[in-house]
Amino acid sequence: MVINMIKPQTSSLSYTRAVTSLSAQTVAQTRFTQSDGISEVLAACPQVSLLSCEVSSGRVNYSGRIIFTIVYSDEEGKLCRMQKGAEFSHYCDDEALAPAQTAVCRLTCERVSTRRDGSAIVVSAIVCADVDVFALAERTFITACEGAYLKTQTKEFFSFITFSGECEVEDDFEADGVDDILVPSACALVTSAECGTGEVAASGEINLSLLAMRRSGPASFERVIPFRCVIPCEDSFAGALPRVNAEIRDMNVNATVDDERGKCRVEFSCTLAASGWFAQRSEQAAAADAFSCTNALSLSKSEENFCVPAERKLYSERISSPASAKAKLDFTCRFLAVALPKAEYEYVAGTGAVEGAVTAVLMYEQGGDVKSTEISLPFSVKISADDGAKAACSVCGVSVKQPSEGQIEGEALIKVCAEYPKTSCVTYLTAIEEGEALPPEDSAVTVIIPSSGDGLWDAARKLNCPPEQVAAVNPDLKYPLSGRERVLIYRKK
Predict the structure, then answer these.
(1) Where do the CATH 3.10.350.10 domains begin and end in the chain?
(2) Average pLDDT over every residue of 147-154
(3) Is 476 left (phi over 0), alpha (psi -120 to 50) or beta?
(4) Which terminus of the chain has fewer CB atoms gathered within 10 Å of its CB, N or C?
(5) 3-class SS at 327?
(6) Residue 44 to residue 477: CA distance in whole angstroms
(7) Element (H, E) at 463
(8) Mean of the pLDDT values across residues 470-488?
(9) pLDDT tens digit string along 21-34?
(10) Least confident residue range of 164-173, 258-267, 329-338
(11) What architecture is the 441-493 domain classified under in CATH?
(12) Dihedral (CA of 65, 69, 70, 76) sign
């Protein structure tokens, strides 16, 4: 009859783990079939919002709505607008995905283009999706073990909590001399967020850009609208730092013209949808290693890697540099408006900078006709060299000038909200199995030369002796060891 001397005790906890982070791109487009009378499309503006995001076996399926607004000149040279929406769907694949998991999705737009297709105008944009996926899991770890010596440590674990909600943002202001608004463009930047008891609060700015008509010509206006969105979340607690995505849905911009005063009252309203996640921290005493003086042990270990937001900083920088334009510009061009600015960017860990380009639509008059071209202004904003940093960027205050014929220069205000993570790796024992009996130690004295950095546990494991006995026999040792010491143990016969 074999009697097992090794009897481990375990503890189990339910938690939510981070499964994976995915990215995907798809093309969303719509057709303006009523193109009669459209001489030239001068500007196109997309506004994208999320409709649904669900996880299935091996796949995340998401869908959204995109609304395109175009500004065009008719056959008489008059500026007009047209708007049309479309729905789209796409997916991300990963073997780790399963139906019971939860996904948090963020959509953004880039590279808008227009083309003629027969009698229709086709407007398209690339929609980018960033998806974080979470799942319920069970964490089992060894807390004690009869018949073996354990190296028990206090481990820092995390469980992730997702949230979502909406709030209404309203603003009104006056714009001098505006006759009509052709197209609005808005982008939300979260600049601060914090968890409270039962709620998550996010604050930031909505950068509103308006392409309007003023005294029969195009003009651009900008407005920075502050917002604060409070999202109910039962599991939220004070002190956690959340990651929050904010997108604009159902945007309405109405203009009321007072002819007597020459003023235009602009009323802005939108639904701001916010979603994200935060990490709940806990400490648990768990075994990291084990050995037995009598038997060989088979140890099963589990490893968890965590990456959670630890700090958030806001950077603001005015950039100025030569700009490029798709059209050939010279001194016969009279610049009228710079509208619909946006930033396409990426964080480059090697340089610690957010690098990209500001794009905008430049409206200008040449030969009595109103024309447009896309301009691009490169930028680089230094933040910090951190491999795991996340950055969100917005742009406003774009201006363009032509200091010499055929050369243009641009200026813009770039705002970057950078999130710096805390990463950790936790390893712990999940199972201990008893192996073959160890041969008896015949020598009365055993001496080892430790490795640099060894602690009491490392020395005891190499000597196959209880840590307290090693400490008693070698009272003058100071840990961690330098590697020049001699550690010994006496065995009484």
Answers:
(1) 441-493
(2) 92
(3) alpha
(4) N
(5) coil
(6) 74
(7) helix 456-463
(8) 90
(9) 999 999 999 998 87
(10) 258-267
(11) Roll (3.10)
(12) positive
